[in-house]
Design brief:
This protein is mostly helical and about 210 residues long. The chain has helices spanning about 25-35, 40-50, 55-70, 80-95, 105-120, 130-140, 150-160, 165-175, 180-205.
C-alpha cells in the first residue's frame, strides 16, 4: 500500500477488491482498475468458455471492451490493429488460452504475447507505474481507430490475408457453435447485405 494512504484509506479498504493492495481513492488503485478487464467482460468470456466457444471468441469480449473504451473517450488508439492488440493482451493476462502469434509476426509481438501468458500463469497484478505510462500515451491518440470504417478496413485486410479454405473452415466452425435462431438472424443479415451490394452495383452501372 502507498505510504500516504496507510492511515487515511484504512476505513474504505473493504470496498476494494480483495486481491487489490490499494484503496479506491488512490491514484495507483485507479490505474490498476483501468488495466484490469471489467467484470461484465470477464463474465461474458467465462460464459463463452463454458459454452465451448473457441479462445478467439472468448478474447473477442476483451477486444469489444477496448473498442468501447476508445469510443467513449477513456483513451485513444493509433489504429484499429492497436486497439485489438490491447484487447488480446488483456485476454491473455486474464487466462484465455490464445494460440501464439504466427511465425510472420514481429519479434516484439511474440515477446508481448509470451509476457502476457506468463503474467496469467503467475496471476500477477499490472505494474501501476507502467499502467499510468500506457494510459498517458494512449490519451494522446485519437478515437478514429474505433470507427466502423476503420474496423471494417481491418477486418477485410485480415480476411484477405487468409486463404479461402481457412475462411470457409472458420465459417463452418462458427455455424456449429450457434443455435438455429442465431444462424437464421445471421443468414437474414447476409441476405440484406447482398441485396444492398446488388442495388449499388445496378445503380453504378445505370449511371
Amino acid at each position: 500500500m502507498n505510504g500516504g494512504c496507510a492511515t487515511s484509506c484504512a476505513a474504505e479498504m473493504a470496498s476494494a477488491p480483495s486481491e487489490s493492495p490499494w484503496h479506491p481513492g488512490c491514484v495507483d488503485y485507479r490505474h490498476w482498475r483501468r488495466a484490469m478487464p471489467e467484470e461484465t467482460t470477464m463474465k461474458r468470456a467465462r460464459k463463452a468458455k463454458r459454452s465451448g466457444k473457441a479462445p478467439s471468441t472468448q478474447a473477442g469480449e476483451f477486444v469489444r471492451e477496448e473498442i468501447h473504451h476508445v469510443r467513449e473517450g477513456k483513451h485513444g488508439a493509433r489504429s484499429a490493429k492497436q486497439a485489438i492488440a490491447i484487447g488480446l493482451s488483456k485476454a491473455r493476462r486474464s487466462g484465455v488460452k490464445l494460440p501464439p502469434p504466427p511465425a510472420s509476426a514481429k519479434a516484439t509481438t511474440k515477446r508481448s504475447a509470451k509476457s502476457a501468458s506468463r503474467a496469467a500463469a503467475r496471476r500477477s497484478r499490472p505494474s501501476p507505474k507502467r499502467s499510468r505510462a500506457v494510459t498517458r500515451a494512449l490519451k494522446h491518440e485519437g478515437r478514429a481507430a474505433a470507427s466502423h470504417t476503420a474496423l471494417a478496413r481491418q477486418a477485410k485486410g485480415a480476411a484477405r490475408r487468409r486463404s479461402s479454405a481457412a475462411r470457409s473452415a472458420s465459417a463452418r466452425k462458427a455455424a456449429r457453435t450457434k443455435g438455429p435462431r442465431v444462424r437464421k438472424a445471421a443468414a437474414q443479415r447476409a441476405a440484406r447485405t447482398r441485396q444492398r451490394r446488388r442495388s449499388r452495383t445496378s445503380a453504378a452501372s445505370g449511371s
